[in-house]
Amino acid sequence: MTKINTVNDLENLRNKILEDREKFRATLVICGGTGCQASRAGGVIDEIKKELDNHGLNESVCLRTTGCHGFCEQGPLIVIEPDNLFYCHVTPDDVHEIITKTILNNEIVERLLYTDPVSGNLIKTESEIPFYKAQDRQILTQNRQVDPCSIEDYIAIGGYTALGKTLFEMSPESVVQEIMDSELRGRGGGGFPTGLKWAECREAPGDEKYVICNADEGDPGAYMDRCVLEGNPHLVLEGMLIGAWAIGASQGHIYVRNEYPLAVDNIRVAVQQARESGLLGDGILGSKFSFDVEISRGGGAFVCGESTALMASLEGKVGEPKPKDVHTVIDGLWHKPTTLNNVETWANVPAIMKNGSSAFAAKGSKGSKGTKILALTGCIKNTGLVEVEMGTPIKNIVFDIGGGANNEKPVKAVQTGGPSGGCLPVEKFDLPVDFDELYDAGSMIGSGGMVVMDEETCMVDVAKYFLTFLQDESCGKCVPCRIGVSRMLEIVTDITEGRGKLEQINLLEELGDTLSHTALCGLGKTAANPVLSTLRYFREEYEIHIEEKKCPAGVCQELITYAIDPESCTFCGLCKKACPHNAITGEKKQAHEIDLGLCIKCGICRSECKFESIIIN
Amino acid sequence: MQNTNLDSILESRRSQPHQLIEVLQDIQEQHGYISEETMATVSEELGVPLMDVYSVASFYKSFSLKPRGKNVITICTGTACHVRGAKLIVNQANAQLDVAPGETTDDGQFTIEHVNCVGACALAPVVTENGSYHHHMDSGKLRKLIKSLESKDTEENSND
Ligand SMILES: Cc1cc2nc3c(=O)[nH]c(=O)nc-3n(C[C@H](O)[C@H](O)[C@H](O)COP(=O)(O)O)c2cc1C
Ligand code: FES
After folding, report:
1. Which residues are bridge partners to A450 per DSSP?
2. Disulfide check for A74: which of A88, A310, A448, A564 has CB 3.0–4.6 Å away?
3. In this structure, which ligand is nearest to the CA of A447?
4. Residue closest to A488 by CA, chosen among A458, A457, A528, A456
5. Is B160 on the interface with A (CB under 8 A)?
């Protein structure tokens, strides 16, 4: 790899890369992110390589395997540049046709185009698809432009020029000021002003300081950080380099979730490439600035996303949080001043340096600037990763981008902020994606998970789900969290199993209040939010569970029974075959019945019946 | 064999207590679990008291202290997977193999595990089988997957 010793070297290299690429008349961009890989994109990539070889196209057509484009539901995805033709659900069998028709003859393979579910029209390019059209992809757009394992790709789109500008045109103080002026707030959940954190860390006494990237992404049901780190690792590195220079750190750490093997691989490659080209190491770009990064894998503990627990984990210890009477910006990793930011926070930094703070602050709402990446999942048509301007109303995200409910059942709520957040009902969908407004409504943006729920989701069960998660993940160090969460779970379990009493609702609220005031760390302080928010907006569901011993959504096993509807049943025998407990009787072509003595209400028969003949009473 | 393996994992990390988690990650990845003997070696080589090695190994979910089955089926029970029916999949695995998450079948063929999220939430529910991803899972698909793994195993056995 060529050493990049000066800003001039960087500029020359960029020009050379762009020049070399002029020979390509088309680029096949294929998503190789975790989602598309799950949809077998690997086979498509192999087939493209083979076909390009067979047709002698290696010198004129470029193949770029990238990270996640966001529209995971439609994967494997291919975009063909320069026209940005968009093909979805591509299989290896389609590749021959793509090459011979589209690449060689400029013909469109209509079968692979995206069909707009509303109008039924075929859509040719990515930018015309409603899912993308309603977004503002400041960060995510780059995922399509770079192969995460190619530092050249990142340099080609202007990568590391913000670093050059920072090192030679700005003082560390003015970098911190620029971040302050941008009003960037942390994307990891807390929404803490990033500039303020950097300023405190910069001013903290001590020569040795650290910067850390929090890529532990513990919110189950969110994957923004995976996509950014996996798809554009150099962007995160560049952000960390700028931050390190601003606060005066020469060592950085990336703490990445081990459940993301591809992200771990890609960031390792990126760090290696940056070292080889001199963008990490001593005297970066010919300046006096030295910086290197170490990668550590998380151990699958949610609490390790919390700053002090994460630092303990980096030191090789059990991940237990510490009381925050001293801030980690003063006393952090190895007791040194430490700046910890989330992946997406770091990823926002290079553009702020390049385009200025005012360009960043021009987007967004009063207290929440810029854009936010959200993981839109659950009972919705277009699941995937979306990036919107802060302040965008939830309804635009769920209905315009997400396309609404996925199976006729009306959308009931959206869960934001993961285990620390809450559930907001449809009536609140006018609320904007904004740190403060969502907090006031009893939820939070959190890291950006947005799980859509429909009428088949029981809100008491959701509360129970999060309490189970939190009980499991509580490190057990402080009493309020260890005992409080367990007590709350016991009560909610009573309610879902028909033993609940109305007065227990008050007790839940009381316990929740105590937890938020007395728990040691953020996990415990916010642990009651899923319960409190469902009580606030879906209280009647709790009451029906308690008073009528019924689960309106048909979820809570103890409160329902299954039966076969003789009208619609076609006696196909599928349910009988599927039932692992042999609870279904009846010969083929004859009425089937469920033996309630054997039935454990696992729901498998209902999910397998093709005629919706299994009904819940 | 295992010792050379351990040697290469420990190389350049000896006497560096803070490398404990990274070392355990590599051992878990290569051996499938962390045995008592390995913990003792790691304790000695890194200079970390055995008690601390044990408490770290048991605190973090990534580490398994028991050998796992030949096939590891990991069911995602994250929020996105939960609202799309992850419970059904757990129920299916449970009923078909007669083991709960965290357990291994008596014949050592299958271990069922659950995970909080693998980051493929848009394709929920998600199951990984020996590291490869299966999306939009349902009970029927899991039943077939387990059956195909079972018949692959019988085939291999009869070829021995
Ligand atoms: C229980 C708990 C889990 C957390 N998990 C994460 C996480 O997975 N990723 C993250 O970036 N921040 C997480 N945080 C927030 C971090 O403590 C910290 O505020 C954040 O990483 C700071 O970066 P930011 O200012 O850029 O957001 C968590 C906090 C708590 C209390
Ligand atoms: S919630 Fe299952 S993959 Fe994220």
Report:
1. A376, A416
2. A88
3. 1
4. A528
5. no
Distance separating alpha carbons of residues A355 and A443, to the nearest angstrom: 32
Is the same domain home to B149 and B97? yes
Q: Clarify whether residues B114 and B145 are in a common domain.
A: yes
Tokens of A59: 């010198």
Task: Count how many pairs of residues, chain A against chain B, have C-beta atoms within 8 Å.
Answer: 174
Same domain, B44 and B83: no
Q: Which residues of chain A does B123 touch, with a Cβ-Cβ cutoff of 8 Å? A: 35, 38-39, 72-73, 75, 383
Q: Chain B residues with CB inside 8 Å of A217's CB?
A: 117, 119
Q: Which amino acid is at B132?
A: S
Strand A614-616 vs strand A562-564: parallel, antiparallel, or unpaired?
antiparallel
Q: What is the pLDDT of residues A431-466, one digit of tens each?
A: 999 999 999 999 999 999 999 999 999 999 999 999
DSSP state of A504: H
Query: How do residues A240-293 score in pLDDT, each as one tens digit?
Result: 999 999 999 999 999 999 999 999 999 999 999 999 999 999 999 999 999 999
Determine how β-strand A411-416 pairs with β-strand A449-454: antiparallel
Q: What is the ipTM of this complex?
A: 0.94
Is A271 in contact with A151 (CB distance < 8 Å)?
Answer: no
Question: Measured in whole angstroms, how far is the alpha carbon of residue A126 from the centre of its chain?
Answer: 21
For residue A398, give the amino acid letter: V
Test A451 with B83 for CB contact under 8 angstroms: yes
Domain that holds residue B11: 3-59
Residues A212 and A243 in one domain: yes
Please tell me the residue having the least CA distance from ligand 2 atom 3: B121
